[in-house]
Amino acid sequence: MIPNRKNSSWIGASLERREDRRLLKGRGRFADDVSLPRMGYVALLPSPYANARIKKIDLKAAQALSGVYLVVTGAQFVKTVGPMPTRSNAPVVQYCIAVDRVRHVGEPVAAVVAVNRYIAEDAVELIEVEYEEYDPVVDPMASIKATGNGVLHPDVGSNVVHKSEHSWGPLSQNLKKAAHIVTENFRWNRVAPQPIETCAAVADFNPAGEYFTIWSNMSQQSIIGGNLAISLGVQETQVNYHLCDVGGSFGGKAGLFHVPMIAAGLARLAKRPVKYVEDRMEHMANGNQNGSDRIYTASLSLDSDGRFTAVIFDVIDDFGAYFMINTGSHGNSLAQATGPYDIPALGYNLKCVLTNKVQQAPYRGFGGEVANFVLERLVDAAAKKMNWDPIDLRRRNFITKDNFPYRIPNGNIYDSGDYEKVLEKALMAADLPYWESKKKSAIQKGKRIGWGISTVNERSVLSMTEFWFLDKSPRFPQTSSPESVQIRIASNGRAVVTIYAPHWGNSPETMAVQLVAETLGMHPDHIEVNYGSTENGMISKGPVGSRYTVMLAGAIAGACKKLKDRIFTFAAHMLEVEKNELVIRDEVVSSAFSSGSSLTFAEISRFAHNFRLEFPAGEEYASGLIAQYTYDHPLTTSPNPDTNDLGIFYPIVGHACHIAIVEVDEITLQTKFLKYVAVHDAGTIVNPKAVAGQIRGGIAQGIGTALYERVYYDDQGQLLTVTLADYAIPTSLEIPDIVIDHVETPSPYTEYGIKGCGEGGRLAAMPAIAAAIDNAFKDKGLFIRELPVTPSFLYDNLHIDD
Amino acid sequence: MKYDVKMKVNGDLVEEQVTSRMLLSDFIRDVLGLTGTHIGCEHGVCGSCTIKIDGVTNRACLIFAVQANGADISTIEGLSNEDGSMSILQELFSKHQALQCGFCTPGILLAAQEFIDGPGVTVDRETVREVISGNLCRCTGYETIVDAVVEAAALKIEGEL
Amino acid sequence: MKPPNFQYKRPFSIDEALAIIDNCKDLDVRIIAGGQSLIPMMNFRVAVPEVLVDLGAIQGLTTIQKDSDFLYIGAMATATSVMQSDLILRNAPLIPLAYEHVAHPTIRNRGTLGGNLCHCDPASEMPMVMSVLQAKLIVASTRGVRCISAKDFFKDLYTTALEPDEILTQIRVPFASHSTRFAFEEISLRKGDYAIVGIAGSIETKQGSCKNLRIGLCGVSNVVACFDQFSDLTQGCRVENIPTEKIIERVRSQINFESTASVSAAYRKYATEGLIRRVVDRLRG
Lengths: 802, 161, 285
What we know:
The complex is a heterotrimer. By secondary structure, chain A is α+β, with helices and mostly antiparallel strands. Chain A folds into 3 domains: 5-18 and 482-631, Aldehyde oxidase/xanthine dehydrogenase, molybdopterin binding domain (Aldehyde Oxidoreductase, domain 4), CATH 3.30.365.10; 34-134 and 197-247 and 254-286, Aldehyde oxidase/xanthine dehydrogenase, a/b hammerhead (Aldehyde Oxidoreductase, domain 3, Alpha-Beta Complex); 368-460 and 649-801, Aldehyde oxidase/xanthine dehydrogenase, molybdopterin binding domain (Aldehyde Oxidoreductase, domain 4, 2-Layer Sandwich). Chain A is built from 20 helices and 28 strands. In chain A, a hairpin with a 5-residue loop joins strand 13 (294-302) and strand 14. Chain A is globular, with a radius of gyration of 28 Å. By secondary structure, chain B is an alpha+beta fold. Chain B folds into 2 domains: 2-77, Roll (Ubiquitin-like (UB roll)); 88-157, Orthogonal Bundle (DNA polymerase, domain 1). In chain B, 32% of the residues lie in helices and 17% in strands. Chain B has helices at residues 24-31, 88-95, 105-117, 125-131, 143-157; strands at 2-9, 12-19, 50-53, 56-59, 72-74. Chain C is α+β, with helices and mostly antiparallel strands. Chain C has helices at residues 14-23, 38-43, 79-83, 86-91, 94-99, 105-110, 113-119, 125-132, 150-153, 231-234, 244-253, 265-284; strands spanning 7-9, 29-32, 51-54, 64-66, 70-74, 136-141, 144-149, 154-156, 159-160, 167-174, 180-187, 197-206, 209-218, 225-227. The chains are: A alpha+beta, B alpha+beta, C alpha+beta. Chains A and B meet through helix 1 and helix 18 of A and helix 1, helix 2, helix 3, helix 4 and helix 5 of B.
């Protein structure tokens, strides 16, 4: 249903966010804010080695310390808490406290519960561990060939945990016929979401009924709760998971298991409530939240007219010590592997390898941002090689707006788009001729000006097949990714919306309010939102893969339809008219035909709640006004088992064009932004300010990835970035103001035509910035193949002295 | 060994006993139950635990509670107006959507309020960026925070705040 | 990340502080000033003092005064108060110039000049600035008071000339004559981070000719570096003619540039040369 925007009251309005008031007053409720009587605090002993066998652990001194309730080794803990849930098909087994062997620095080997975290840390220092050190495996290329103790998981047999080769469309023919082929190598380094709130959990275990209650900032409670219960050795109905405010996730907290598992397992053993809050060092070293770490050889073929005919990616991805997400991030790379361009053939050859580093998790883009970077860099490389204008080359290859829905070679579908319009808006805003004209005078001041452009797609509304469709025999080929809502009209006529996914920096309450206001014709002030725990909850996949608003809109549309029917049933009886002639306007129900009497929601609800005998017998008049609805993914299909068609898995596809204009100081080689333009098409916009906020935040993280951030391990597998002083998240002085504009091409498949917008900023930023720096050093032939472009990196790649 | 401490927190007199090593951030959160002060790094980089001690902002994770004996402290919970309504700065943060997850927000509000109340208040965006540069925000990209603070600064300069 | 336990002492006078130190001879005693470097180290349990002597309650350690020759800065003066001091701005403008690059406002509210100097991080700006300014550091112990020149005070990475029983009480900065010029340039990954390269320069000019060129460097190597042996290059030279490239060559030849995870020694060297050039250009006017 695509609305006539002129009739929309609340969709498209920049309402102030419903989440903000409590947060501004310091009255949010984050996991670390939960406190229970008799609660113990956890500290963990981290491994100092990247690869070692645990020979012996002596807990005596720690156990004897006053104030210590419990000290356990991994071997003891695993007797009651099984391996962590994983999507890995190998399967690669991971314990939340290491058993027998440690596989990365910072992996916990023992846990303490004490009266406070201070004493818990004192006790940790008293634990004595004997290790047998093995040579660490740090380089992914070396890891492929590793043998003996260099194989991280001997039962898997090899550090190569996934290997597959795929081609879609006329790949070999097109490569053979190509007029030009550009081939480049790229290195995509590890970064991490590093939310300002680390991961935390408070857990209580009630031995009567063996019942766990958990508060945590993991953000897919209802879907993952079942997996967590299996690891805890109980039924999923024996775990109640409460939603908390989440201090940023950016994907990382989506599949966070070890923190709630450690808290829950220790609560049961210690016979008291337990709080575990990662400190920043633990989050860095053991957060299980690093991004992709890839080595690429990639090629783009073109015909003599400059039309792209094929693209092929050879990828080696260093997943770290475990493989929780399986090949999900490569499924994600494949969702829009051909970008906004009409490319008929696609190749993808993948090797996933393990090394002695902390493992990967989703991070804003989940591999999609890497594929976008590589493809955009290939387009720039082609433009450079052929001496074509990079903008014209893009334009020439765009999928045109009358070609949607468009099927890409691997089977995924792009629903709608108008890429030309987005590009035009961006070019207007950027005014590149002006910046070109400034270049010369800047040089005289020792400054180089450069501009770069990216035109990328912004796949949204995750479905689940991407996690397993590359596997030959998937272990758990999940296809559900539902979202649910309950809406009731209280007896005073106000709406109460219950949602089942947390606030993690998105705007779920604001979205719920605006969508219900629009759909039910209510004023936002008359709508409350609360969160359901898993115990009384409906199923929810939660906010990952830029899906929540779209899915919530679907669930709300479904629930509102049911609710309207209920309201009309009561109102028809009360007004003595036919149900089908009733309409709602501003919380008033009246007949569309007769100008007679009308009823407010409050009046109807008061009757529906209190005066059952005023209505006829029959189920349809049952007391109360309440509706629930679970919405499934609007368009996803099963992949073909032989992977020659991956099916439709990420069809709600937005688009973005970023133009970065940078200035690089010739002496310091520091990059600063003179202007940054971002034009996005995320379909129908519910709250423009909130969408702009998502875009800006994504760009800020993109700037971090492009210029500042990197997780560094040395050749012994020691983590060098263990503080926020070493891991350089940009501050307010590094992020410029961003010029934002929108195009709204509605999706034909979603309620109101909304598309996701949570990742677009980061999906588009890095290639534009890299291209801008290239452009600043055009005369030196610079071509960025790796990030971050720190001053030192730039110097080392420019070879200024040569 | 425990040490007696006595301090004023958001106007209330507080008397407690603390160990020497208890960080003020933990004292505020765990002893006083004022959980609006957040802990993000415990090494003074992120700025989430920013509070005011004797009129100037401090990192609560970089001072021991015992050192704050006799101090006058204010936290995010003390930032709203007397009647509990939001201050103009808080309202402007809401208006500009200057927060998303809200975890860094209490620290940023305190740093911004110090600037608004200080002698160097200006609407210059680069100055405002400098003022909040010690507070990491991973969500917003800072621009809307700068918008909110600049608008508050303008009101202050015009004498309307 | 919680600190280990310690005995906390809060003396009200220097004498009382010195007596405490004297009484704790067999213990690991640390002085805490602003604590903005020490407390993170304690939270990481890198520093594990048994006794912490807090100078925060001692009167008079935060004052900033002058007489006809010197600025007297109390060791406990905060970075913010030093940056905002008109006395310092007028008489040692290099200090506030460099402080712009030190951390962020809230850290500067509590971090002290004295604490910063005693921490002696070679990537930190102030030890290098004090060396360029030829400051004198006044230290007290029960054995008496002594005056150490900045050059002798900063020994090595995190190592000063302070004896275990001594407390830095005051920093004396000689007045800059009106004919002294200063310049400061720094590169850090993010503003406020420790310097990748920081360069301070000063030069005295008299009737167009110059003397006493000093160049200080932070961030480039393991020690606080200040070079002042340039008289053969600058003697009798008009300030606008000082030989930049020779000065750069002299400094460069004496530094062992370090590589770290994210910064190559080659870049440090390149950037150091570039920043010295900028600093010298500024000094030329």
